[in-house]
C-alpha cells in the first residue's frame, strides 16, 4: 500500500485549508518516538527521528511484549493492522497459578463482544517486530528516520529548539520531542526538564528485578503439562504465576526473522545488586532466582536462549512535561516511568504520540504551539496516573503478576488475590462462574482503561478549550484592526 493510499484510507481527521505544517525533531526511536512520528507525519508535519542505535529493524535487549487494546486500536487506525496480525498472536485470556506449587487457581477468557467494546485486541509480539512495523509505517507516512545519531545535548528555545549530535551536527526544528526514555543512559530530555524545574532526579531501587527471557518452542513440548502446551498454542493464553514478592508471566510470541514459535517469560525476583543498569544475564542466574518455584517454570528456564535482567526502579513523574524555556516536550517513559514489564508501557507511549498528532492537526499559527504542548501534559499526565491507580489490585487490568505491583500495599495485594480466587470459584463456590464483584472489576478495566481513546480526548480538549482560545485570539485581532482603522480615519479627518 502506498503512502497516499494509507493517508486517504486511514486519516479520518481532515486538515483545515489553513493548516500550518511545522518541523518536529524526535529524540528516540522506540515506541513513543515512532508512534509520535506516525501521528504527526500522517497529518502533514515534517518529522525527523534521531535514534542512537544504527537500525530500526533490530533491537538490543528485545524480547516478547504485550499490546493492550487501547494501543492496538490506534495502530489499526494508523494502517498497521495487517502487519501486526501477521507477526503477533492474539491473546484471548489469562490463567493464574500459585508461584510455588503451580496449582491453577483461576482463569479468564475475554469474550469477543467485550473486546469489540474496546476497538482493539490483546496482542503478544516480539518487541523487534513491533518496533520494525512502527518504523516502516512512520517512513511510509513521510517521517525521516536516522539511526546512529548519538545526541549529546538538547537546547530549548522559544522559536527554534535544537539537538546537537556527537558528530557536531546541529538538528533544529520548531519543536523537539524527547522520547529517549529513562532506562538507558544517557537520557537528555528528562534530565534537562528535571533540572529546569528544580525537580530531583531520584532513582529508588525496589529490591526487585524482572528477567526477560526467550525460550524455544521445543522446550514446551518437553513439559509434562500438556494442557499448558495446548492452551498456549491455540489461544495465546497469558500464564501468570503469583506469590508474595515473586511472580512470573509467560506467553507465546513469534521469532522476528523466521516466524517460528517462541515462549516469553517475565520472571520477577529479588534484586540486591546496587547496579540498576539493564544487562544481559545468564541461565544460571535465572535458575537461582526460580529456586523453590513451580517445576514447570524451572523446566522452561533450563532452555532459555536469551536472558535480560531489568532492575525495577521507581522514578518520579515529571511535574511538567514541557521545558519552561521553550518548545521541548518529554513523552513516554521520559515523562512517566512505568514498572518494567508492565502491560501499560506501550499503551501509554502510543497514547502520548496520538494526542500530540491530533492536537497539532489543528495548527494554523505558530503561536498555538506552546498551548498545544501544554495541552499534551494536561491531557496525558493525569491519565497515566489514573490508569496505574485503576490497575492496582484489578486482575482484569493485569499489568504485573498479582502482588508484585501491590507488594507494598497489603490491602491492594489482598484485593488482587481475592480476585484470582473468585475466578476459580465464581465467588460462590461455582467453578467457571464470575461473581458480581469480579464482573464489575472487569467492566471497570474495560471502561477506564482499554476502551479509552486518546485521540477522542484530544478532540474533546480542542472543542472545550482550543476553539475558545481561537475565538479569543480572533477577537483580539479584530479589536486591534478596528482600533487601527479608527485611528486612520481620525488622522484623515484631521
SS-based structural class? alpha/beta
Report the total helices. 16
Strand content: 15-25%
Roughly how much helix do the residues carry, as a percent range? 40-55%
What spatial form do the alpha-carbon principal axes imply? globular
Oligomer state equals single chain
Low-confidence stretches: 1-12, 425-438, 476-485
Instruction: Summarize the biggest pleated sheet.
Output: 8 strands, mixed
Radius of gyration: 24 Å
Mean pLDDT: 83
Strand order of the largest sheet: 6-5-14-15-16-13-18-17
Distance between the termini: 67 Å
DSSP strand tally: 19
Description:
This protein is of the alpha/beta class and 494 residues long. It has helices at residues 3-10, 31-41, 69-77, 81-87, 112-118, 127-140, 189-197, 217-221, 226-235, 283-289, 295-301, 344-360, 369-391, 410-425, 436-450, 454-493; strands spanning 23-27, 46-50, 64-67, 89-90, 93-98, 104-109, 123-126, 144-146, 151-155, 162-165, 170-172, 175-178, 204-216, 238-243, 246-254, 261-270, 279-280, 306-314, 328-330. It contains 16 helices and 19 strands. Strands 6-5-14-15-16-13-18-17 form an eight-stranded mixed beta sheet. The protein has a five-stranded parallel beta sheet with strand order 8-2-1-12-19, sandwiched between helices. The longest helix has 40 residues, at 454-493.
Amino acid at each position: 500500500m502506498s503512502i497516499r493510499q494509507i493517508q486517504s484510507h486511514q486519516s479520518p481527521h481532515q486538515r483545515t485549508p489553513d493548516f500550518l505544517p511545522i518541523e518536529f525533531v524526535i529524540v528516540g526511536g522506540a515506541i513513543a518516538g515512532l508512534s509520535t512520528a506516525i501521528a504527526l507525519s500522517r497529518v502533514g508535519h515534517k518529522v525527523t527521528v534521531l535514534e542512537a542505535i544504527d537500525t530500526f529493524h533490530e533491537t538490543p535487549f528485545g524480547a516478547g511484549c504485550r499490546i493492550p487494546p487501547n494501543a492496538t486500536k490506534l495502530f489499526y487506525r494508523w494502517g498497521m493492522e495487517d502487519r501486526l496480525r501477521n507477526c503477533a498472536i492474539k491473546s484471548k485470556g489469562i490463567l493464574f497459578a500459585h508461584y510455588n506449587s503451580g496449582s491453577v487457581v483461576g482463569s479468564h477468557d475475554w469474550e469477543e463482544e467485550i473486546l469489540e467494546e474496546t476497538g482493539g485486541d490483546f496482542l503478544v509480539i516480539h518487541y523487534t517486530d513491533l518496533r520494525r512495523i512502527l518504523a516502516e509505517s512512520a517512513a511510509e507516512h513521510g517521517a525521516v528516520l536516522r539511526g546512529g545519531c548519538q545526541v549529546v545535548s538538547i537546547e530549548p528555545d522559544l522559536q527554534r529548539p535544537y539537538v546537537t549530535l556527537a558528530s557536531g551536527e546541529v538538528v533544529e526544528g520548531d519543536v523537539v520531542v524527547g522520547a529517549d526514555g529513562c532506562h538507558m543512559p544517557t537520557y537528555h530530555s528528562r534530565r534537562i526538564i528535571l533540572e529546569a524545574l528544580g525537580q530531583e532526579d531520584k532513582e529508588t531501587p525496589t529490591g526487585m528485578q524482572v528477567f526477560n527471557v526467550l525460550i524455544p518452542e521445543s522446550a514446551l513440548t518437553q513439559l509434562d503439562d500438556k494442557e499448558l502446551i495446548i492452551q498456549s498454542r491455540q489461544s495465546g493464553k497469558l500464564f501468570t504465576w503469583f506469590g508474595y514478592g515473586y511472580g512470573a508471566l509467560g506467553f507465546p510470541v513469534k521469532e522476528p526473522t523466521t516466524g517460528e514459535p517462541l515462549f516469553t517469560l517475565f520472571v520477577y525476583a529479588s534484586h540486591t545488586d546496587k547496579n540498576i543498569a539493564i544487562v544481559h544475564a545468564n541461565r544460571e542466574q535465572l535458575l537461582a532466582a526460580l529456586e523453590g518455584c513451580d517445576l514447570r517454570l524451572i523446566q522452561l528456564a533450563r532452555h532459555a536462549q536469551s536472558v535480560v535482567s531489568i532492575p525495577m526502579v521507581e522514578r518520579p513523574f515529571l511535574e511538567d512535561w514541557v521545558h519552561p524555556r521553550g518548545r521541548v516536550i518529554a513523552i513516554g517513559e521520559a515523562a512517566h516511568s512505568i514498572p518494567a514489564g508492565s502491560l501499560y508501557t506501550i499503551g501509554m507511549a502510543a497514547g502520548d504520540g496520538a494526542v500530540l498528532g491530533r492536537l497539532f492537526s489543528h495548527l494554523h499559527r505558530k503561536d498555538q504551539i506552546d498551548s498545544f504542548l501544554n495541552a499534551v501534559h494536561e491531557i496525558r499526565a493525569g491519565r497515566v496516573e489514573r490508569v496505574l491507580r485503576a490497575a492496582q489490585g484489578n486482575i482484569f487490568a493485569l499489568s504485573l503478576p498479582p502482588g508484585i505491583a501491590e507488594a507494598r500495599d497489603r490491602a491492594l495485594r489482598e484485593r488482587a488475590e481475592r480476585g484470582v480466587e473468585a475466578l476459580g470459584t465464581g465467588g460462590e463456590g461455582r467453578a467457571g462462574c464470575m461473581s458480581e464483584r469480579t464482573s464489575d472489576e472487569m467492566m471497570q478495566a474495560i471502561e477506564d482503561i482499554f476502551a479509552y481513546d486518546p485521540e477522542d480526548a484530544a478532540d474533546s480538549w480542542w472543542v472545550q478549550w482550543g476553539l475558545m482560545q481561537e475565538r479569543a485570539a480572533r477577537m483580539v485581532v479584530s479589536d486591534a484592526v478596528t482600533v487601527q482603522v479608527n485611528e486612520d480615519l481620525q488622522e484623515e479627518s484631521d
